[in-house]
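Quick log. Single chain, no ligands specified.
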Amino acid sequence: MSNNDLPPEGEDRPNAAAFGRALARGLGINLLVADMAASLTFHTRVLRAKISYWDQEFAIAEALGSVWMLHHDRTYRDHPLVGIARGADGRGAGAELRLYGLDPDQAEADAEAGGGVVLAGAANKPHGLREAYILDPEGYLWVPSVPIPEG
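-> predicted structure:
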């Protein structure tokens, strides 16, 4: 991950209460991660996310009109999910995190170039999307996809 991909660590930390109140209605995603640097590299290079804030404990990622958060395991030290996440093979087992509008071919190439795990390469699907299945360093399954043009 280059310094150009991220703002300086800890710069302009948002007010937690104001940030929480400003979140749009709908689905929210918060990912527990053991390695913040590896996760941020994946999110910026493969998912093309913009990281608006980060430190070793917490990050805010944005892409394609969506916002999600990453929290290091130690920030959840008293949360019951940590024990479950540490004991699971592939933290995100059974969940797909879909980014509609992200080029799956480019994401696949970026993942392969960075040593990522591509479970299934970009392919056209019967439900009208071209998508790829890519694991991030924590085992979460990301599915970048774009509509297949009609024709």
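The mean pLDDT is 87.
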